[in-house]
Write a structure and sequence with these properties.
The protein is mainly alpha-helical and 270 residues long. The longest helix has 25 residues.
Length: 270
């Protein structure tokens, strides 16, 4: 069939008379069904689904309690730093799990946390031990503390607000008042150093110093325990505070470096 004949044949399928309001009707029954039944249904607008309300997660009525292993880690950390679990001692997992009324799984997770902080040493097929601090360990810890804390002191001298310097002055005055109580002096001294780091506003430096200070506390011969060191430390703090108030970054950086170096000398194992 030629193209013309094909066009004529196709055209003959339509009449010129409208049917059911349509301009053309189809004589072929199959085409007629498609045109009259299916196409109108296809062209009819589909109903739009009503928008579903967004799902709202329920708001918990109370905050999640800390994980069990975190609570165990905090208890063990306290005992280690208080030397009731002394450096070098074996951590009896079975005994501690029974004492705390827990399984060994959260205990082992807690030990991993303490190992990451340097407070616990894991030994293959031997278990966990409280870390023993060697003279080299101590020297390296104090070296890093001197770098980090002297840098923080310089930052505070230039960046701290007047209110923040006043807060440090209050902490220093509290330190002065505790000189007759070595344990209280130790706590006040740490509060001053940690607050200075917080004001310096570098969270990574703060975290590193916090971990280093934990290791430093493992030392049986803490620097402040040495005869005369407490009074010398307080005199150094007075100079540091004066340099901070004068906003002398160079001087306070040098003073803090010397302050921590002197602590290292006093804490050296011999």
């Amino acid at each position: 069939m030629s193209i013309a004949e094909d066009q004529h044949s196709a055209g003959s399928a339509f009449s010129d008379q409208p049917m059911d309001g349509r301009p053309f009707a189809l004589h072929n029954s199959k085409l007629n069904y498609i045109y009259n039944a299916l196409i109108p249904a296809y062209k009819a607008p589909m109903p739009r689904p009503s928008p579903a309300a967004p799902a709202i997660a329920p708001i918990p009525s109370r905050l999640r309690e800390s994980a069990l292993y975190e609570q165990v880690a905090e208890r063990l950390r306290t005992r280690i730093l208080a030397h009731t679990l002394p450096p070098g001692s074996w951590i009896d997992e079975q005994s501690i799990a029974a004492e705390y009324g827990i399984s060994r799984t959260p205990l082992r997770e807690a030990l991993k946390v303490l190992a990451s902080e340097g407070l616990v040493t894991m030994k293959l097929r031997r278990g966990a031990y409280v870390t023993e601090v060697s003279e080299r360990d101590l020297s390296e810890v104090f070296y890093l503390l001197a770098l980090l804390e002297s840098d923080a002191a310089a930052a505070v001298a230039t960046q701290a607000t007047a209110a923040e310097l006043a807060e440090l002055q209050t902490l220093h005055e509290h330190l002065e008042s505790t000189v007759a109580d070595r344990d209280a002096f130790f706590r006040a001294n740490e509060q001053f150093h940690i607050r200075l780091l917080q004001i310096a506003d570098n969270r990574w430096r703060l975290q590193m110093v916090a971990d280093l200070r934990k290791v430093m506390k493992l030392n049986r011969h803490h620097s402040l325990f040495k005869q005369g060191r407490l009074e010398a430390s307080l005199a150094e703090h007075r100079q540091i505070m004066a340099a901070l108030k004068a906003r002398n970054a160079v001087r306070v950086q040098k003073l803090m470096q010397q302050h921590i170096d002197h602590g290292r000398e006093a804490a050296t194992l011999s």
